[in-house]
Protein: UDP-N-acetylenolpyruvoylglucosamine reductase
Organism: Lacticaseibacillus yichunensis
Amino acid sequence: MTETGSFGGLSVHLNEPLSHYTFTQTGGPADLLALPTSVVEVQQLLTEAHAQALPVTVIGNASNLIVKDGGIRGLVILLTKMTEVTCDGTRLIADAGARLIDVTEVAYQAGLGGLAFAAGIPGSIGGAVFMNAGAYGGEICDVLASAEVLTRDGQLTTYSNEDMQFAYRHSLVQDTGDIVLRATFELTQQPRPQIRAAMDHFNSLRASKQPLDYPSCGSVFKRPAGHFVGPMIQQSGLQGHIIGGAQISEKHAGFIVNLGGATASDYLAMIHYVQEHVAAKFGVALHPEVRIIGSDAAKG
């Protein structure tokens, strides 16, 4: 049974395995894991962490994430309980912990188009804004109006789309460490059947091409300019390769799946293996799209 304690007046989990939360089902323990339900609670947690000089790591839905086997020191804040989504005219406002899949459904119900590309992305709003998530020709930067963030010193501020300095799989908050709490999207009125058709189309593409029947961290590598990652991995003869419990997916070579019992170290070894072989064959450097955090497991 998970041991709990108090931190900043809030209940936290102690030495909690993050493999219970990551989509890869890998990752070591968090010293302290908090699941706040409001902005006020996030502020409480940051204030206490600052007072105790503890490092803070913020996690969204843990879908495009690898937590190393040694876990994460200090306080980990998981935002999955902050999930409110509302619509105001053509604007949709979503808390950071809301799942993209759920948010696209709310947009559909309200007859708001523009988010269909994200219908099958398993991440959270906060994570999607953090990494400027995208698929099938759409990106978060195309529809984000503003993001409400909490700075690391506990100040609330709002960034416009321009302020966020979006680029391919990048945003300002990756550099500043600000915590995305809420996002406002500017969408367009569309007939609901048209929105549903687009959502169904993208979900069908995803199901036909991606290994949804195994745990994974999604697309592992950023796409290099002028190249496609999957075909390069295939042409390097790597598809299906196994290290420990991790395998380069036989369905889509851009994914690494957990066949059962994989560790984060298996994933990292596979990433390095792919990088070395693709660089040797094509002279192309692959860079991870997946976020890799935490400490290595102690040796011995």
In short: The radius of gyration is 19 Å. The mean pLDDT is 95.
